[in-house]
Amino acid sequence: MNSIVNITPIIIILSEHSSEHTFGFNSDIFEANVINILLLLFGLIYVLKQSLGSTLNERQLKVLAAIQESEERLEQASSRLSESEKQLAQTQIIINQIKKEAQLTAEKVRSSILAQGQIDIERLAITGKSNIETAEKQIRRQIQQQIAFLALKKVTLQLENQMSSDIQLRIIDNNIAKLGDQL
Fold first, then answer.
1. How high is the pLDDT of residue 97?
2. Which of 22, 31, 27 is nearest to 10 (CA)?
3. What pTM was computed for the model?
């Protein structure tokens, strides 16, 4: 407020001086301010146009370059995203195929194991029957041998009891004669 009071005498002196001379301060506020503002504005535009213009042009070019670079990055990111989505879809297809193949393989293995188990059971049954038949034959043979042995023993005992030395000599001579004819 104090500076406004000090300026007032200066304005009065300038206005008195302007009435005496052709160049001076115009006390009409509307007329003087519009011209002064226009002069100041044109002066600023003229002075700052070149430096601000080149700075603004550089800034505009940088902004446009940044926008273009961002758009390129967005386009690259979009293409990478679409490529990744394609790869994901292909991977899902491959995973599904692998799962199907694994299920088929598991089913084949299970069927093969069951079939092999059935074959093994049949083979064991046949082997068991064969072993039983072999054991029966062996037991029959042993029984037959035992019967033959007992029969021979009984016949031998009977012959020893019933056979005299004359009969034994006749049998020996008869067998020797048969052997002599064959030679």
1. 95
2. 27
3. 0.39
d(CA 107, CA 115): 12
What is the percent of the chain with per-residue pLDDT over 90, rounded to a whole number? 46
pLDDT tens-digit readout, 130-179: 999 999 999 999 999 999 899 888 888 887 777 777 777 888 888 888 88
DSSP 8-42: HHHHHHHHHHHHHSSSS----HHHHHHHHHHHHHH
CA distance 23 to 10: 16
57 with 49: CB under 8 angstroms?
no
Residue 15 CA to residue 34 CA, distance in Å, equals 18
Three-class SS state of 96: helix
DSSP at 164 = -
The widest CA-to-CA distance across the chain, in whole angstroms, is 202
Give the closest residue to 27 by CA, choosing from 11, 46, 40, 42.
11
